[in-house]
Amino acid sequence: MTARSARAADPTRDHPRSVLPADLPEEAPLAPRALAPLSNRPYRTYLAGHAVASTGVWMQNIATDWLVLELTGSPAAVGVTMACQFAPVLLLGLHAGQLADRFPKRTLLMLTQAAFLTLTATLAVVTLTGVATAPLVWALALVGGCVTAVDGPARQAFAGELVPADHLRGAVSLNSAVFQTSRLLGPAVAATLISTVGTGWAFAATAVCFTAPLVALALLRPADLLTLPVPRVPGAPRDRGSVRTALAHVRQRPHVLVTIVLVGIVGTFGLNFPVVLTAMSTEVLHGGPELYGAFNTALALGSTAGALVAGTRATTRLRLIVAACLGFGALQAAASLAPNAAVLLVVLVAVGLVNLAFQAMANSSVQLWVDPDVRGRVMGLYLLAFVGGTPFGAPLVGWITETWGARVGLAFCGLVPAGAALVAAVLLARRVGVHPAQTVGRAVAARAGDLRLASSAWLPAAPASSSSEVTRPAWQRPRRPSSRPQPAAATWRSSRSSAAAPRRTRRAASRTGSAG
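RE: above sequence
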């Protein structure tokens, strides 16, 4: 029986705990591979609710910002609203991931969606009755940020319970594609409702959208979820979901740590498009809101394509993630040199494509590289790195843009992730023993047998050999004698030491004889 037929005969191979990334097939056509998660009925049910809820998220963002602007007339007040939404994720994100590991994720998601529905309905009531104030909106946004801190890790880790491991990358990519597609629809629907019936009814429509994921999650049965209880050794101390366990888990896996660091740098410095693109559209290209909207549409189109492209890969190595980060930074830096709006639109489509490909590959790879019993906490750390730096990176990019111009700000947003990717490539090259250019260059044409990364190591297996050294990393193996000719100085020192050896022996013997 071949290895493939043996895996096909194994009834447990579709479970996330029984399939390793190295065993995943890569022979499937690209399009079916990207859409393979849709063959799972539970995932189709969940994705339908996720699509409606994502549209509601974008509608609520637009309606909330517009309501605060109407109440205060200050763009700075809109910034306070964003801070209220992101601050709880920064403070609670890592600890909220413990809940995803200790409690059923489906139950947590139903509670968070019910909380979102309640908060949005409250916004609709206070807006329609005319009692809405900016502090009240900020308080509701702060509570919503706390709910988001719990919802994010549970939602990210829940994908592993809906599809088998060989479909997880496609599921993460489809989730991203749906979210980016709703980015095109949600703002348009919100703008239409605000201009026709008012902001309050836009909130009411958003509340209706949040009922869809509740219905979808209620339709899922416990038997539909791919989960197994974690076996507990009798007498062993019980892990109560400590954050320290997740940090140690990540620290023991350098490829996971490098990926999360790159995601954090991209989230902090690379994804400040509202800051730099508004300045590019008004100060550099002398356009208006229509041009800024076209820029966001180009990013959304590229992001949707990038998420689908990432879903076509059955496996992903760290070097491919590093190369995608480098490509994203280089393209964004190149966008700062665009001579006109048409060229910038084309480059932004490529920026969106590479950006979402990087995010989808990083997200799915981290989930596959860590153990399922700590996945919620690790994804909490992932989201903390991705979102937590925004309150620090956005003001810095805004100051650079205001001081030196929009082109410099856009270039800065690209050069920092590109520089981080180059540093990661150098570190990876030192571990593997190749030139950094080869590390990045090979990633463009990454094939199944090159430098495959599993969850226990980020180094390639050595060629087959009878020696036990094949299982040891390159930097831990004993150094073999070099066949290269030694320099003249080294040869002279060697011959001198050889000639001096007999003299030292004779002197030692004479001392021994005199002593006797």
